[in-house]
Amino acid sequence: MNGERFTLDTNILVYSVDRQAGQRRIVADEIIEKAVLRDCWLTLQAVSEFYAATIRKRLVPASDAAAQAEDWMTLFPCAAASPAAVRAALAAAAAGRAYYWDALLVATAAEAGCSFILTEDMADGDSFAGVTVLNPITGASLAPEARRLLEATT
User: I want to staple 23 with a disulfide (CB 3.0 to 4.6 A). Which of 13, 47, 73, 140 is the partner?
Assistant: First the structure.
């Protein structure tokens, strides 16, 4: 895992502003703090979903959610979904291998050169389009595999 590129799913971003998330918020903050120092890319889909979810759930005012999304787009390189990523996601969803939005996020991350995605929304250890799923939260702390990725020396 030394120096490998990875991405964060929407749920990690949302936990970082959710005052009701308890330990998950603390772990999400740790993940983001460490990810800024690593080869972490965000998908524009995850940033957009963050904004939509936090507004829908009324976790923060719209202006705060927009400002946070802007900050992340400044701090992290970002990848947009390409037509090829959309086609890959459609094929995966139609074949029943993944939900469309998860497949699109992973296909976009794969195109950006990511080897891992940190998320709680997909099965830990699964691989799709060359991207391996890591559930970064174990109980109330950062999972060991995620810690290795986030603390790898380059």
Answer: 140
